[in-house]
Amino acid sequence: VTEERAPRDTRGRGGLPGILKGLATTARTALRPSHTAEYPDVPPTLPPRSRGVIALLEENCTSCMLCARECPDWCIYIDSHKETVPATTPGGRERQRNVLDRFAIDFSLCMYCGICIEVCPFDALFWSPQFEYAETDIRDLLHEKDRLGDWMATVPPPPALDERAAEPAEVAAANRPARGTGSVGGGAASGRPPRTVRPRTVTSAPPPAAGEPETPDATKPLPTGSQPAEPPDPADPPSPPAPTEDPT
Amino acid sequence: MTALDLVLRAVAVLAAFLVLPLLVGQVEHKVMAHMQGRLGPMYAGGFHGWAQLVADGVKFVQKEDITPRAADRRVFRLAPAVALVPYLVALALVPVHPGVAAVDVPGSVVLVLAVTSVGALGTLMAGWSSGNKYSLLGGLRAAAQLVSYELPLVLAVASVALAGGSLSLVVLADRWSPWWLLWQLPGAVVFLVAAVAELQRPPFDMPIADAELVLGAWTEYTGLRFAFFLLAEYAGIVVVSLLFAVLWLGGWHGPAPEALGWLWTLLKGLVVAVGVIWVRVSWPRLREDQLQRLAWLWLVPLAVIQLALTAAGVVMGW
User: Fold this and answer.
1) What residues of B are in contact with residue A25 (Cβ under 8 Å)?
2) With contact defined as beta carbons under 8 Å apart, do A117 and A126 qualify?
3) Residues on chain B touching A5 (C-beta within 8 angstroms)
4) For B46, left (φ over 0), alpha (ψ -120 to 50), or beta?
């Protein structure tokens, strides 16, 4: 409307086109959907690996303290005691196991680095996208294991593997041949997955992982070892990569 | 005019004065929000925040009414009323329907122009009486701006009055013909620009430039008095938009039954108001010297040319 306004500015696209361009820009924006996230009414769509809160699967925790020791903020508190499990068979040996008394994360200190989750060898800690746990008092952000366990329900299933990715460690472990050829007690005979790997008994190698610059030369250990990028199976602690036989 | 008639008209004007500015304000909230990719108010009242400005009004009533110690108390307290009431009077003069205006006086064009200029006095009073240098600067800028833009405004309106051969808004709107859209186009542009400047709305909001003057003449105001200034601004938009709709867009002339004339007037006024809002969202603020240059070097000559064009047209019998 006020094209008379900028009489001198004739450089570039100043003057009249600039003014009309401004009107056109706002009109175009008005006709497009707005960017407003109506958060409390419409829940946000979060990416699957959102770091909202750390959930605890108490059954998997062995009180090994790795997470508490790796935590850069020292915001994980673990109390446990040992319990003696009587021998199951006469003349057997008594066993000891850790019982978790307290597992607490102080989310006022946590910096959401996820190192505790990375370091947990037994898959007891998980990222949950849940983020609505604000408190009015900072001291209320110290959450005990029951609250951390409640968040397990909000942990999404792990995203699907990439196409041609290596098979998951659990599957690899289940497909692994039994220890020895069944002559030794345990292993396949007892119905449990084998606890260690005996590379010499491998008969068929799994397909090579895509993208890995692996060459099929014999200098490397056989590729049946647990995949380093996969989380370890709780029923199958990572095997030593030694290609020698187990002393059992 | 009986007493009942008088009361009815007064109530109608007061209702329009309280509803239409809120309507424009709400439209501004929503249109501006969407032009910036937002949604604007969504909660107050339930449906898309329709009651946001009502809630704002309730909030303003609850605020403490502060008069600064250094202020000139009586002038300070009077200023919002001086800013607000003239627009009430102006609104009463604007016809919305064939032959229907709350107050139908023979020289309503002159009266409207005179009254709307008084509203600016409220800004000046507020600026000077606040005892605050930002307020004073804002008030003086407002005065300079109003002096500059009053002239093209009056000249543009005078052109229409000349074309219609009357000083009554009702008669002018009756004599309007679509040919005026072209004939009076320069005057229409001048009026729109000058009117937005009179209202001190962006891009002519140098007097209340919040980045440099806090809020200009309104800096020291709180509560209801501040709300009155805001109401005066939106009432000003209503008056200017309706005036433009009546004088340049033909008011109630439109392809609809005669009985819906008032709807046409209000619709045209709303379109103009949306244009005022659109301009506010789109354009940056003019510097003080650009502001004066625009008024004196472009608008005044253009208005004078329009006046001459109209005079020639009237003499030649267009």
Assistant:
1) 282
2) yes
3) 286, 290, 294, 298
4) left
Q: What is the 3-state secondary structure (H, E, C) of A163-209?
A: CCCCCCHHHHHHHCCCCCCCCCCCHHHHCCCCCCCCHHHCCCCCCCC
The answer, for A5 touching chain B at a CB cutoff of 8 Å, is yes
Number of H helices, E strands in chain B: 13, 0
Q: In this structure, what DSSP letter does residue A89 have?
A: S
Band of pLDDT at residue B1, cut at 50, 70 and 90: low
Beta strands per DSSP E along chain B:
none
- In terms of pTM, does the model score above 0.90? no
Average pLDDT estimate for A207-232: 47
B31 touches chain A (CB under 8 A): yes
Say whether the ipTM exceeds 0.85: no
Residue type, B305: I
Q: Which two tokens stand for residue B167?
A: 């000083």
Average pLDDT, chain A: 75
- Chain A contact present for B59, CB below 8 A: no
Contacts of B64 (CB under 8 A, 6+ apart): B222, B223
Give B289's contacts in chain A (Cβ within 8 Å).
Answer: none
Q: How many whole angstroms separate alpha carbon B48 and alpha carbon B26?
A: 10
Task: Report pLDDT for A57.
Answer: 92
| Residue A138 Cα to chain centre, angstroms | 27
Residue written as tokens 């000891």?
A96
b/e map B9-30, b = 16+ CB within 10 Å: beeebeebbeebbbbbbbbbbb
User: Which two tokens mark B73?
Assistant: 């108390």
A1, A19, A29: residue with CB nearest B36: A29
The nearest alpha carbon in chain B to A32 belongs to B37
**Euclidean distance between CA atoms B141 and B208, whole angstroms:** 9
* Residue contact B286–A5, C-beta within 8 A: yes
pLDDT digits (tens, 9 = 90+) for B3-55: 888 888 888 888 988 899 999 999 999 999 999 989 888 888 888 888 898 89
Amino acid A230: pLDDT: 47
What band does A232 get if pLDDT is binned at 50, 70 and 90?
A: very low
Q: Which residue carries 């746990």 as its tokens?
A: A133
